[in-house]
């Protein structure tokens, strides 16, 4: 019969025929489930103490430990772990369904176990074999576990032959934690609620037709104006007619004909199919190592997600799946060894592929260079050891910006490919490429790819394929692109529906081709088109989540201090200073410490965007790291009373002489440490030391003057630095355009509370000292509090945050100290103490207006180098970067004068109006951690340092070198005395001799190569190995330099040296030459290029 087909009515007819909301009593969905069998019994383990991956035999068999429950059972509290035991009947239809599945040879079974408890759950057999994970999210599509005929025997109840039995482990949280949204704290009252527990039989033909109709609708909608779209619509309409006549086999044939025809070339001109974009489809399950849940929950998430994926892969032999983060695989190896073994087996088939080559998917803005290299070192070593391969690609789909040093560090770890997609989140500017050559600040190149679907959680829908093609920014340059499918962030991964759609859409006219792929097939395809691709040099800045440079100050300071502690301990161990040299046991303990540090550099942990439980874990981990270090040295910030001065020493792990003021117990004496040395305190105190002259004086009743031979600063009664004169540089130049002062801003972003600082917050600027709103208030005017400093005290009242105004009465006390310290006479040093921080939705900054003119870019230190930052908002790219990240300094330099801001673990900041530097000191978001830095005490240290401008960044005089001062600032701020652990102290010359000297070119030339790290290296023989890490710091060219090594133990000698990499491999031998003073010179590769990172492996024997 000839019937006019209107597009909308036809489309909606199909939609209603498979709708879960409309006509559910008579449409096709109502015919999908033919049988149900309720559980015969559901039991709950009374104790919540069983947190392991399986139950012991006594728990399994002791009935008194289990309580009978029914549907509607609620359990808690939030985050608690619960075990359930379910007895299911062997209904008559069950054997029939299993037999039918075997007979048909279908990969899809008819039998499903359905469980919904408003939580995630992991299903076990009575023998402890993991079946798979289930969850109540995703429209109910993931709340069932398909049971195959092979499962039937394994699920046999040990108590009753006529029953099946399952165990489930549930955590009272969901895929995305336990909060009402991903920016809100967890709900402490959240409970699990058991609403479904049954066996169901689903007709595989009906299920297949429902899937086909969904897909035909999607094609019709996405390709609405094309022949293919109309064919899909009319095919779906015909299938509905056949289903109404119960002609299901004919309906299946009709659907098969459509999709088979789509995979042919009959509907397109010859060769057209191959001309379309090819999407390399890879199963993906991004699991945040911590975020809205803690580390312990992540360990369970990996089992739930990857067991489900393994089950799918057994059914789909062409399916490939990628998984990053060695830490998560290491946890799985410990907790679920059988799952790990199966993963290793599939990895050998290039199907379940470890990728990324790093310990976790880390933040790349905040960690130091060595931490990033250790991420690669431990990740690649893990994959090499357990999977027999190193990763050629760095896989970092989700982090908040990408350091400009990453290409070089990747190449240093044997990687040449890079994949991410986070830059698609940028708020203002759209990044111009999806495939390009990324060039680092040193010139190193890697091939980079952003999947053009702008997601790593694809569902394999026609709309996603179409968007991948239309959104592709490199059309005509390459046909290859990645396509990552599966539920992510909270885990779960691909579903069976996705695999079914992938098969049907593999070659659909009007859409890109879709094929099971791997990182290697993707990047090999891109490499073939590399000559056509554009390049991008420098960092990849994300125009969003810029508040993460500041949020959770406590974890950023903890990370900084642990990095510093490990640097010192590894320096001592590498060169044999300590009695406990680099033994296997000591290296194992250092590995443990590094694993914990790297874990907490995950991209939602160190940036401060996780829930409070995570930071309780982090604090405990930092204490463990410092405890490991304390086994080698005392970590006390003051002297240990039980230790005599002959047992105490000071360590200078930098290549420059360093001045320190001793703690109060030792008279606050000023001492000077040689470069790269360990100096015994008793011998330091024997030297004559002139007490430092006072620098502070009261000019009149309102102005304090701090003055020495280098600087003169004036501070008014409000604590503002109103003048800073550089006496030794710039011929008495005034360094400031306006007063240095504390400011605050209303800090309420559009959505991502812990993540974002919005541009409109600048409109709310107010000063802490003089505030028209009355929130900022001067409590104690500026006064001299030591011979070298003055202090001012303020109060800051919180913005109102709730209807009961409880938080609006919270007050923060701020003690602001300005000093000219003897150990840093060329810097004006600040210490801002907040006791405690209680200002909700408030951003505290310090404003430093610099008298540096005509500067369009600022010099910002990053890992092993620096980058330019905008100082004006001339373009959208400039003003979108209104808040940016820097490490130890942020500098404004003219040709022969500069003013640098030096800081300790303060990363967020900006430069506005050409020369006004703002450091972001503290934030107070209320989610997802409502206590982020709230009610905590904070000490923020920073300094202003005039210097000789661009020409003087690395002046040979250490007191004038910006790089040297920045490197030493953290050590000088936290003076630590080391208790020596030597069996024969008299045999070790520790008083004035450096352990390593570093010879750069002739005096007067640029001294820009930094000796960053010295660490012990494992050895398989009796030799001792250590590694020296260096980098060029300011973008210069160094023609030649060498290391001179002095071994403190008698009889030690250097025997070999090699150029190395992040994996500590021996690459090229280096020349050794003995010196008359007993040292051995190691000639470094020449020249050392701008921002180059160099690793040198050195062997010595006793």
From TrEMBL:
<feature type="domain" description="Glycoside hydrolase family 38 central">
    <location>
        <begin position="543"/>
        <end position="622"/>
    </location>
</feature>
<dbReference type="Pfam" id="PF01074">
    <property type="entry name" value="Glyco_hydro_38N"/>
</dbReference>
<dbReference type="GO" id="GO:0004559">
    <property type="term" value="F:alpha-mannosidase activity"/>
</dbReference>
<dbReference type="InterPro" id="IPR011330">
    <property type="entry name" value="Glyco_hydro/deAcase_b/a-brl"/>
</dbReference>
<dbReference type="InterPro" id="IPR011013">
    <property type="entry name" value="Gal_mutarotase_sf_dom"/>
</dbReference>
<dbReference type="Pfam" id="PF09261">
    <property type="entry name" value="Alpha-mann_mid"/>
</dbReference>
<dbReference type="InterPro" id="IPR037094">
    <property type="entry name" value="Glyco_hydro_38_cen_sf"/>
</dbReference>
<keyword id="KW-0479">Metal-binding</keyword>
<dbReference type="InterPro" id="IPR015341">
    <property type="entry name" value="Glyco_hydro_38_cen"/>
</dbReference>
<keyword id="KW-0326">Glycosidase</keyword>
<dbReference type="GO" id="GO:0006013">
    <property type="term" value="P:mannose metabolic process"/>
</dbReference>
<dbReference type="InterPro" id="IPR011682">
    <property type="entry name" value="Glyco_hydro_38_C"/>
</dbReference>
<dbReference type="GO" id="GO:0046872">
    <property type="term" value="F:metal ion binding"/>
</dbReference>
<dbReference type="Pfam" id="PF07748">
    <property type="entry name" value="Glyco_hydro_38C"/>
</dbReference>
<dbReference type="InterPro" id="IPR054723">
    <property type="entry name" value="Ams1-like_N"/>
</dbReference>
<dbReference type="Pfam" id="PF22907">
    <property type="entry name" value="Ams1-like_1st"/>
</dbReference>
<comment type="similarity">
    <text>Belongs to the glycosyl hydrolase 38 family.</text>
</comment>
<dbReference type="InterPro" id="IPR028995">
    <property type="entry name" value="Glyco_hydro_57/38_cen_sf"/>
</dbReference>
<dbReference type="InterPro" id="IPR027291">
    <property type="entry name" value="Glyco_hydro_38_N_sf"/>
</dbReference>
<keyword id="KW-0378">Hydrolase</keyword>
<dbReference type="GO" id="GO:0009313">
    <property type="term" value="P:oligosaccharide catabolic process"/>
</dbReference>
<protein>
    <recommendedName>
        <fullName>Glycoside hydrolase family 38 central domain-containing protein</fullName>
    </recommendedName>
</protein>
<dbReference type="InterPro" id="IPR000602">
    <property type="entry name" value="Glyco_hydro_38_N"/>
</dbReference>
<dbReference type="GO" id="GO:0030246">
    <property type="term" value="F:carbohydrate binding"/>
</dbReference>
